[in-house]
Amino acid sequence: MLLALIACSAPSDIQPIDPIGRITGEVVDITGAPISGAEIEVDGILVVSDLSGSFVVDGVTPGDHVVSFEAEGFASGYKRASLISWETVTVGVTLADVGGTVQFDATEGGLFVVDGVEIDISNLHYADGSTYSGMVTMDLTYLDPYSADMKYAPGDLGALSWDDSFGKDDEPTSPSQLVSNGMFNLELDDEDGEELEADISVSMPVSNGQLPDSYQLSEGDSVPLWIFDEAKGLWIESGAGTVVWSDADQLLLFEFDAANTPGAWYNCDQPIQWTCYSGIVRDVLGFPIRGALVQAQGGWTASESYTDENGYFEVRVAVGDTVSFSAHTAVGGKLWSTNWSEYISGEGSCEEPDNHDIPVCREAGIVMADNLELNISGIDAGDDGDQLRAWFWEPPGDPTRCQDFWQEIPLDSCVSTSPEDYPDSFKTRTVGIAYETRSAGPWVDVKTPRDTYRMDADTINDNPVYLWETLDIQNKELVRSPVDLRAGDVLRGSTPGNAQAYFGPIKNETWMTIPKAIDIDNVSGALGSRSRSSSLHLGFDSGNNDYLLAFVTTDSNTDGLMCRIKDDGSLDIPAADLQTLPAGFASISIYRPQIDWAEGPDGLPIRLQALSGEIVEVELK
Question: Are 394 and 535 in contact (CB under 8 A)?
Answer without folding.
Answer: no
